[in-house]
Amino acid sequence: MSWMNGLDDWIIVLGALAAIACVLPGTFLVLRGMGMMGDAISHAVLPGIALGFFVSGTRDNVWMFLGAAIAGIVTAVLTQFLHRMGRLERGAAMGVVFTSLFALGLVMIVQAADHVDLDPNCVLYGAIELAPLDTVMFLGMEVPRAFPVLLVVCLINLVIILLFYKEMVISSFDPDMARSTGIHSGLMNQVLMVMTAATCVACFEVVGSILVVSLLVIPAATARLISDRLSIVLVLAVIVGVIGAGLGHISAITVPSWFSSDVEDTSTSGMMAVAAGVLFALAWVLAPRHGLLVLAIHRIRLRVRIVSEDVLGFLFRFEERGESMSVHNIRQTLTSLADAGPLASRLAIVSLKRRRLVYREGSVWKLSDAGRARAVEVVRSHRLWETWLWRQADLAADHVHGQAMRLEHVTDERMRAELEIQTGSVSQDPHGRPIPAGDSEGEDGAAASPPGD
Length: 453
What we know:
By secondary structure, the chain is mostly helical.
């Protein structure tokens, strides 16, 4: 399907405004762990919408907003009531309330459709493709009727967040602190519920009451993966929502033809939800701090560091015994490490050679001076932990090695000094092996003795 100037432009503008309107309250819903409450409200406002139709006999937005606000508050109150008084888990309480109200709303809307120009499918799935055809005069311009509604809701949501930003932030992160500082967290919660309900009503004609939940939750969740600062999360969520709206409409008129020449386009609101989901998936994989790729790299780097330190420790112990570690020995050593996979083992050897901590003479691996200093830290940490576990935790001497193998990799100089204090500046571990002295430690120390001696 070809691009139609004006019509397609307005579709993207309306989709972007709907996304912005949803993102503002949706971000706080996600931060409060109440993303499903947005879903509940988007479904539960249907009785309020239908009630507004029954009362006014038209699609007057004032009655729709009023009915939806009442339905949103009733949803929040009933959910809290069932959770606290009915002893239902919060998710179950939401399920009971929103499914009941949603079913009631569907029945009422079907009845209202006989009296007003209302299509139930439009309420559920939206009709953003047709919205630019229904126009009104706004500030001397002919614009889609949904445009001023969405614009006003965006501005109202923005003003409320700017006016009550501090109160909403504190109520979202620490309700107890909010109460102690005189902030009525319950009132802030009700304000958020009303914002969400009004936003759902404003967007129902564009993206429908079902798909609106994708705009409430997905952009905020995507932004939350990218940043931990609320102000940045809000801005990023708006950007993600706007990009999703644009990509959604472009995809709706281009992607279907890739699969079948008989299908020219598909639902824009549905593709907006799909585009938002794709953006979330990209953030989930590529986010700079919480993305799967970054976490995988961090895990590999941690595994390589641990294996490298284990190799240094083994080389040091071979030197203690007057032995040398051959290529065959080091392969056996890496195989004996339960968590050392082939990739981590190869990267560990490459890392040690690149940092010039080890070098090879023929078939024998040796420690450089820098490698020996690092190996001393690792072995010292290991044997101090063995001694501490033996003396302070009363573990048997033959049970401390495995625990020390894990703890040695998270021990810094300050922790080693504290371990030395708590173990009485010992010079030998429970197995009678000398504890290497650090840079600031002397060679003398009291010999370790069994617990209780």
